């Protein structure tokens, strides 16, 4: 029997995304954003409010990076979600993390996180119900330690954090349980006969 839980953001899993941008003085600011998704083969949409310091920086720099947080850097990722750049201008320095300027866009790559999408600002969508920063993914860089023998990202090595909106927990993804566009083939054959 199902139990009614009321209105809530009941989507699981959610990625733990580290969004980074430079301010007008070239100082990096990073925020933890759970509400984001790929919205095209070369596009990412981040559902983040106008009030974030990082959002303001994206408007100025016209670029940003999005890194996947991992188990090894969970404390840093959580810190970037707790501390606000609006009240702590030296938040990045206090994190102990390091940044390298992207070769492709005017944005910082946080060295500690294993995979980063380097993005140019495509548009900011503002409606009554939505404020989204959309980026064009110009490049993806990854630590060699998370790549397989063919040079592709191996999710089992990535140890990417996922966010649980039900109990505010962090979990790690990684176990492969099937192959996409293959697990349902037998059902497709049966449905077509």
UniProtKB/TrEMBL annotation:
Q: One Pfam match, by short name?
A: Flavin_Reduct
The protein's matches in InterPro entries, at most eight in alphabetical order, are given as: Flavin_Rdtase-like_dom, Flavoredoxin, Split_barrel_FMN-bd
Q: Which cofactor does it need?
A: FMN
Keywords in alphabetical order: Flavoprotein
Among the GO molecular function terms of this UniProt record, one is: oxidoreductase activity, acting on the CH-NH group of donors, NAD or NADP as acceptor
* Residue stretches making up the Flavin reductase like domain: 12-147
Task: Supply the PANTHER family for this chain.
Answer: FLAVOREDOXIN, FLAVOREDOXIN-RELATED-RELATED
Give the family, as the similarity comment puts it: Belongs to the flavoredoxin family.
Spell out the protein name for this chain: Flavin reductase
| Annotated source species | Ruminococcus difficilis
Task: Tell me the classification of the organism that encodes this protein.
Answer: Bacteria, Bacillati, Bacillota, Clostridia, Eubacteriales
């Amino acid at each position: 029997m199902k139990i009614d839980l009321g209105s809530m953001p009941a989507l699981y899993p959610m990625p733990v995304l580290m969004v980074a941008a430079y301010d007008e003085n070239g100082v990096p600011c990073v925020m933890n954003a759970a509400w984001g998704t790929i919205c095209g083969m070369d596009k990412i949409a981040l559902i983040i409010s106008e009030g974030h310091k990082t959002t303001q920086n994206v408007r100025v720099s016209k670029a940003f990076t999005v890194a996947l947080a991992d188990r090894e850097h969970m404390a840093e990722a959580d810190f970037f979600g707790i501390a606000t750049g609006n009240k702590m201008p030296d938040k990045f320095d206090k994190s102990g993390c390091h940044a390298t300027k992207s070769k492709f866009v005017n944005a910082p790559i946080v060295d500690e996180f294993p995979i980063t999408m380097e993005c140019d600002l495509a548009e900011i969508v503002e409606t009554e119900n939505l404020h989204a920063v959309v980026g064009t993914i110009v490049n993806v860089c990854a630590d060699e330690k998370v790549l397989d023998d063919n040079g592709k990202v191996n999710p089992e090595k990535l140890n990417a954090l996922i966010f649980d909106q039900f109990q505010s927990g962090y979990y790690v993804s990684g176990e492969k349980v099937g192959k996409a566009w293959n697990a349902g083939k037998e059902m497709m054959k049966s449905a077509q006969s």
